[in-house]
Specification:
- The structure holds two protein chains of two kinds.
- By secondary structure, chain A is mainly β.
- Chain A contains no helices and twelve strands.
- In chain A, strands 2, 5, 6, 10, 11 and 12 form a six-stranded mixed β-sheet that branches.
- In chain A, a hairpin with a 4-residue loop joins strand 8 and strand 9 (73-78).
- The radius of gyration of chain A is 13 Å and the shape is globular.
- Chain B has strands at 4-7, 10-13, 19-25, 31-38, 42-49, 56-57, 64-68, 74-78, 87-94, 104-105, 109-113.
- In chain B, strands 2, 4, 5, 6, 9, 10 and 11 form a seven-stranded mixed β-sheet that branches. Chain B has a four-stranded antiparallel β-sheet with strand order 1-3-8-7, with no helix packed on it.
- Chain B is globular, with a radius of gyration of 13 Å.
- Classes of the chains: A mainly beta, B mainly beta.
- Chains A and B meet through strand 5, strand 6, strand 10 and strand 11 of A and strand 5 and strand 10 of B.
C-alpha cells in the first residue's frame, strides 16, 4: 500500500523568506511524486512532479522540490515566499501502473507580509 | 480547452434524495476519478475509472455509484443522500501512462445534505 505524510498542518513564513513544506512517502517500487496547490474555493492545481531523473525538480510559480530516496521525502521549497503563495498544499504519490494518486492531508501555508 | 468541468457547482439536498454529479474532460485522458474533500481529511478517493468501460472502488465508495459514460464523461450518483455525504466533491482526470500521471482537477461541487 502507498501512503503520504505531511507532518505539518500549518506553516507560517514571512514574505521574502524561504519556505519549505514537508512530505514523506511510503510506496512499493519506484515512487512517482507530485505537489498540488489549492486556493480557496478552487480545485487543485498541479505544481510539479518527480518521475525519474534529477532529484531537484522545478515547477510552476518558482516552486521546486527535492526527491530524497534514502529519507523517502519530497519536500516543496521556494527561495522567497510571496503573500500570494498562501494556500493549501498537497503532496501525492503513486507508482507505475493503473494505481490512482494517494494524497496527503494537506499543509496550510500562510505567508505574512 | 476547458479542461475538467463539473456540474452543478452547488447543491442542497434533503436526506434521502438522490442526485447525479456530472464530470467531463476534453483532454483525451484515459483515467478519471471522483474525490471528496472534508476539513482535516485531505482528499479521499471515492471511485475511479482507469479506462473507458472500467470502474473501481476507492477508499470511501459506500453510498455512491459511478458511470463512465464514454471517454469524456464520468458521473457520480448518490442514490439516497445522507448528512455524512455533505462535502466538496472533485472530479479529476489523467493520461496515466507514458510517465504522464499527474491529475487535473475540476472546480468542485459543494454539496450540503440536510
Amino acid at each position: 500500500a502507498q501512503s503520504v505524510a505531511q507532518p505539518e498542518d500549518q506553516v507560517n513564513v514571512a514574505e521574502g523568506n524561504p519556505l519549505t513544506v514537508k512530505c514523506t512517502y511510503s510506496v512499493s517500487g519506484n515512487p512517482y511524486l507530485f505537489w498540488y496547490v489549492q486556493y480557496p474555493n478552487r480545485g487543485l492545481q498541479f505544481l510539479l512532479k518527480y518521475i525519474t531523473g534529477d532529484n531537484l525538480v522545478k515547477g510552476s510559480y518558482g516552486f521546486e522540490a527535492e526527491f530524497n530516496k534514502s529519507q523517502t521525502s519530497f519536500h516543496l521549497k521556494k527561495p522567497s515566499a510571496l503573500v500570494s503563495d498562501s494556500a493549501l498544499y498537497f503532496c501525492a504519490v503513486t507508482h507505475s501502473g493503473n494505481t490512482p494518486l494517494v494524497f496527503g492531508k494537506g499543509t496550510r501555508l500562510s505567508v505574512i507580509a | 480547452n476547458a479542461g475538467v468541468t463539473q456540474t452543478p457547482k452547488f447543491q442542497v439536498l434533503k436526506t434521502g434524495q438522490s442526485m447525479t454529479l456530472q464530470c467531463a474532460q476534453d483532454m483525451n485522458h484515459n483515467s478519471m476519478y471522483w474525490y471528496r474533500q472534508d476539513p482535516g481529511m485531505g482528499l479521499r478517493l471515492i471511485y475511479y475509472s482507469a479506462s473507458e468501460g472500467t470502474t473501481d472502488k476507492g477508499e470511501v465508495p459506500n453510498g455512491y455509484n459511478v458511470s463512465r459514460l464514454n471517454k469524456r464523461e464520468f458521473s457520480l450518483r448518490l442514490e439516497s443522500a445522507a448528512p455524512s455525504q455533505t462535502s466538496v466533491y472533485f472530479c479529476a482526470s489523467s493520461r496515466h501512462r507514458d510517465q504522464s500521471y499527474e491529475q487535473y482537477f475540476g472546480p468542485g461541487t459543494r454539496l450540503t445534505v440536510t
